[in-house]
Amino acid sequence: MCYLSLSMTEHSLPIPATPDSISPDWLTRALRQAGVLDRAEVVAIDAKPVAAGSGFVGQAAGLKIAYSAQEASAPATVFVKLSSSDPVVRQQRQRIGLYETEAGFYRDVAPLPGFPMRVPRSYLNLYDKSVSASLLLLEDLGQVEFGDNLTGCSATDAEIAVRQLGLLHAYFWESSSLKELSWLCALTDEAQARAGMYQAILPRFERRCADFLMPSLREAAQRFAPVLPKYFQQCSNGPQTLTHGDFRADNLAFTHTSESRGVTVFDWQVARRSRGPRDLAYFLSGSVSVEQRRAMEESLLDLYYETLKVNGVEGYSTRDLHCDVQVGLGAPLATLVIAGGMLDFSSKRGTDLLKRLCERLDAALDDHQFASYLDRLASPGCVSIGTGSLEKHEGYSAGYDPLVLQGLAKREATRDAAFFVPYLTPAMHLLDCGCGPGGITVTLAALVPQGRVVGIDIEASQLDMGRREAQQRGIGNVEFHHASLYALPLADGTFDAVLAHAVLYHLAEPMKALRELWRVLKPRGVIGLRDADFDGDVYYPVHEDVDRLWNLTKRVIEHHGGDARFGRKQRRLLREAGFLNIAASASFDAFGTPEMTAGFSRYFGGVFLEQHRQLILEEQWATEPKLAAMQNALLAWGNNPDAFHARCRCEAVGWK
Does 176 reside within a domain? Predict the structure, then answer.
């Protein structure tokens, strides 16, 4: 039998190269590992490919199983999904994360308590990055009605699908847990690669579809090419959720019982973190006929919106939804061009399907005035991104008010990085990330007099303050540079130590930053993190309007891409980034004198609320009267002689 070579853990199985190479012994071990087979053994397998083809993405087959004895839990048939048998194709698919994403979904997401969408049961899920190989052993869905993009969904099935989509998106709406999934990409992660692929394939798509490509669709496809990076950036702003990415009739299976009709959703290879209505636009523009979509689109949008509201989504308007659906039509347009130019649609059904998809998408683009969106996207004021650029959708929620800078400048290493200082030696080369006005950076430099400290910050205006501080103290072994943690302009293995103090919890992509920090550390170098965890804060006396303000603070931070509960996750994130021997601790920044509590309340009750007032009102998180009540309550708390506040700071150190 042929198996792909890979390193094995004690209970793992090798990944077969093809469905035909799955042996009875291998399948016996797999089903026992899944807990559905006890004493019986598999004695024979009849493997039937689900679809013949070139193996461009992978291989799929149904396995009919014969056992040595009957067991009630043993499945008579299973479905196996394998990576391509071609190592070149596997590596290509790995670069865009297809195999890793689906493996991650079935491992980390599908088993979540209360996960709202029916998906096939996974008996076994294997993925080996070293050889770009994967296997999913899934339940056979049996007697179901598979959707068909060519004929399109019925009105009833369209309603079922849209309701399930709303449940999925509501479950993960603005969930910080999505950022912890290292395999789940944001659209900005692949913007440049996808844009390059689209531009390269567009001429081939136009040639293939020349006989039936409408001039308006051709024009939209051509105009979309140069603005794709901006498009991905815009879709990464605002409320993010888990999106399926290929939500269409062909990936749906409908079941009917005496009580109800339901849907099972499969093929999660392009799941992403994005704005949810991209999935909705994808489904509406390709999985129902033009006439049916026009007749029931508003009712389907209402159904989706009400499903979000009933399941706890707040601060999202019907206007937001209509705008997101218009923007979301870029998803089926990009997929149509890339798939239409790359995949084999030469069969009669393939050609008919490609033609039907073009007709439906062209009508949807026209109905939703996608051309006007392209006009806005191409305007000079629309922010784009590029290689090495800073993340425009993120922001330092505290701002740069003089009151903030005064507090930041007072930070110093022996107090604010006390957990990290014991690991420093005098000749170390050290990187301080998110250094701000340099209080910690300069005092770190004093602790490594034979070494050197580099402070970096995304806000260039802070760096001169750090330089002045170093000059005033007469400390010469320190320098400051403007840089993004996502693309450090530094060589591999540059530093002996890295400190990231109160910076990672502001980032939408902390894992991307941690991998950069791992890269610039020398072997056996040490990293230290210290970040807030707002759920660990304590304050007294308690007041309901002050509680509301703290909740607003969390929402503002997370709206700008951060995670107000980041601190507790540091050990896991460091481990996933490749660090070893990780140890965690915690401490508090305390405000316990009349001057400190008064200053603290002036900042949050005045500066912070004013800085984010427009956002709070636009997102409908609070009204003007409620904001005024919160502001007054916090200022009163700050002047209370009994006031006390302690901000939880979680800490972790690890080694490369």
Answer: yes
Tokens found for residue 44:
């024979």
Q: Please tell me whether residues 479 and 523 are part of one structural domain.
A: yes
**Nearest 5°: CA angle at 125, between 122 and 130?**
165
User: Hey, which of 50-64, 341-355, 397-411, 621-635 has the most confident mean pLDDT?
Assistant: 621-635
Q: Are residues 314 and 368 in the same domain?
A: yes
Rounded Cα gap, residues 561 and 89, in angstroms: 34
Mean pLDDT of all residues in 63-71? 95
For 260-300, how does the pLDDT look when each residue is reduced to its tens digit (9 = 90+)?
889 999 999 999 999 999 999 999 999 999 999 999 999 99
Percent of the chain predicted with pLDDT > 70:
91
Query: How many domains is the chain partitioned into structurally?
Result: 3
58 and 201 co-located in one domain: no
Among candidates 93, 122, 117, which has minimal Cα distance to 106?
122
Answer yes or no: do 644 and 510 share one domain.
yes
Assess whether 127 and 148 both reside in one domain.
no
C-alpha dihedral sign at 429, 430, 436, 442: negative
At 570, the amino acid letter reads Q
Q: Which two tokens stand for residue 265?
A: 């959703």
Inside any domain, residue 11: yes
The answer as to whether 391 is a domain residue is: no
Give me the helices (H) in 521-565, please: 544-559
Q: Are 599 and 636 in the same domain? A: yes
Q: What is the mean pLDDT of residues 175-201?
A: 86
Pairing of strands 272-274, 241-243: antiparallel
Q: Are residues 118 and 159 in the same domain?
A: no
Phi and psi, residue 335, nearest 5°: -65, -40
Q: What are the phi and psi torsion angles at 128 (to 5°)? A: -130, 110
Torsion of CA 397, 403, 406, 410, to 10 degrees: -70
Q: Between vectors from CA 574 to CA 269 and to CA 131, what angle results, nearest 5°?
A: 40
Cα–Cα nearest to 60, from 41, 47, 44, 45? 47
Q: How far apart are CA 254 and CA 268, in angstroms?
A: 17
Q: In this structure, what CATH number is given to the domain that contains residue 494?
A: 3.40.50.150
User: Which of 77, 105, 131 corresponds to the end of one domain?
Assistant: 131
What single-letter amino acid sits at 627? L
Q: What pTM was computed for the model? A: 0.61
Looking at the structure, tell me whether residues 436 and 577 fall in a common domain.
Answer: yes
Q: Given a cut of 80, is residue 577 above it in pLDDT? A: yes
Q: What count of other Cβ atoms lies within 10 Å of the Cβ of residue 595?
A: 8
Q: Report whether pLDDT(569) > 70.
A: yes
**Cβ atoms 572, 652 nearer than 8 A:** no
Q: Which of 131, 158, 182 is the last residue of a domain?
A: 131
Mean pLDDT of the chain: 87
For residue 97, is it within any domain?
yes
Q: Is 532 helix (H, G, I), strand (E, B) or coil?
A: strand
* Interval 231-257 mean pLDDT: 89
Sequence-ordered list of residues with C-beta below 8 angstroms from that of 158, at least 6 positions apart, any chain: 283, 287, 288, 292, 296, 300
Which residue is listed with tokens 């024979």?
44
Domain range for residue 560? 402-655
Distance from C-alpha of 66 to C-alpha of 362, rounded to nearest angstrom: 49
Look at 451 and 350; give whichever has higher pLDDT: 451
Find the CATH number of the domain harbouring 166.
Answer: 3.90.1200.10
Residue ranges of alpha helices (H) inside 96-252 are 98-104, 155-171, 191-208, 215-224, 228-235
CB 132 within 8 A of CB 87: yes
Handedness of CA 612, 616, 618, 623 (dihedral sign): negative
